[in-house]
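Give me structure tokens for this 145-residue protein.
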Amino acid sequence: MTPREYPESPQTAVGAIVVKDEKVLMVKRVRAPGEGLWAIPGGRVKLGETLEQAAEREVKEETGIVICARGPVYTFDLIEHDAAGRVRFHYVIVDLLADYVSGRPRPRDDASEARWVSAEELDALPASDTTKDLLKRLTDLDRFS
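Here you go.
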């Protein structure tokens, strides 16, 4: 059990949607929740951090990519229960658009893989429905393509 598991209250987290050359930056998660799934990079907001600062730090820690975070585009709850029905994880996640600044994706920290993924490639990757729905919405709004 990690300190992230079985929280006393919901935890705030961010995700950063970074697009370069019509591909989005994705990571393959190595820990629960989402272990083994592809997702946009992100993580918990630390005390005293803005959403933008947290997104910039988390992307750098997970992928080595430097970004400039912009505004929120999507907010959702991630709630996971254990077999006994107790809340194992509860995150309120705010996804932000972000501009690519520099770097090449390298898996670090909470990621086993990190790379740029096209909209077509995303269909074949194991990812949560929430991630796929969000990126499809952005494609439909011409923000991803």
